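Here is one record:
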Amino acid sequence: MDPLDALYRRWLFEVWQGDHAAAGDILAPGFTGHWPGLEVHGPAEAAEQVRRSHEYFTDVRTALDAGPVIGPAPGSAAGASRGDGMVAAAWSFHGSYRGGIPGATAAPGTRVSFRGHDLFRAEGGRFTEYWVVSDALSLMTALGAVG
């Protein structure tokens, strides 16, 4: 298995399943994460953002829908290190709503799912930068927060 494929799977199946300490192994100290409307710096802030994402849900499960696709980093030589490059993947999030999202009318226990895409830049075998796009509109619709 490609080392960046394995690294991404740790992100999706360890960090997003609740092993927030694994972020320290996966993300470089100078990591920058770009969530819609939010930027985080370093593994601890990234782990905290994932933890906050879980606050409103129980029974969280993530699934890998496509990828990860591994490619060279922009401007890098074709023979770059196996620990350097770009990683893209599509995922889905499944969980039971715990309650507490402002404006949501769904009852606690409501099962929800939504999808998204990740793009990572890796250097030296760790992720250094992250961009995520997720279908928050479908999530908020399922929770009755928008209609």
Q: What stands out?
A: The longest helix spans residues 3-15. DSSP finds four helices and six strands in the chain. The longest strand covers residues 57-71.
